[in-house]
Amino acid sequence: MITAVFENWHIGDGNYPPLHRGQLVNLSFEFEPGTLAKASLKMAKEFTHVGNAEYRFCGDVLNTYRRELGPEIIIIEADSFRFYILSQDVGRYAPADIVVGTGTLLLDH
């Protein structure tokens, strides 16, 4: 089971159709890091729930997307779970880097 922050403004803003119990949907997740750093190759990959919508992870950077304005988008896979992080540290992380972090899982806006 995944626990993530689902802001009430998602309902009715047009980004998602009305949802009902039991409905299968594809969702995208943003991770808001409290900590984020490069890791050693020896660290085990993990995506561990530590309470509420808080997680710690160790995973692979799959890709990065630089934007002219705003933060860089980093796509990470940790223990078969994929999410993205918006990072102000443009150019610090690259595909194939291993990263560790802690923070909050959010439904993509």
What's the gist of this structure?
Helices cover 0% and strands 48% of the residues. It has no helices and six strands. The two termini are 20 Å apart.
Work out the strand percent.
over 45%
Structural class: mainly beta
**What is the CATH topology?**
OB fold (Dihydrolipoamide Acetyltransferase, E2P)
As for the number of domains, it is: 1
Overall description:
- There is one protein chain.
- The protein has 109 residues and is mainly β.
- It has strands at 29-38, 46-51, 54-65, 72-78, 81-87, 98-107.
- Strands 1, 2, 3, 4, 5 and 6 form a 6-stranded antiparallel β-sheet that branches.
- 14% of the residues are buried.
Task: Give descriptors for this structure.
6 strands; single chain; 109 residues; OB fold (Dihydrolipoamide Acetyltransferase, E2P); mainly beta
Topology, element by element:
Elements: E1 29-38, E2 46-51, E3 54-65, E4 72-78, E5 81-87, E6 98-107
Antiparallel strand pairs: 1-6, 2-3, 3-4, 3-6, 4-5
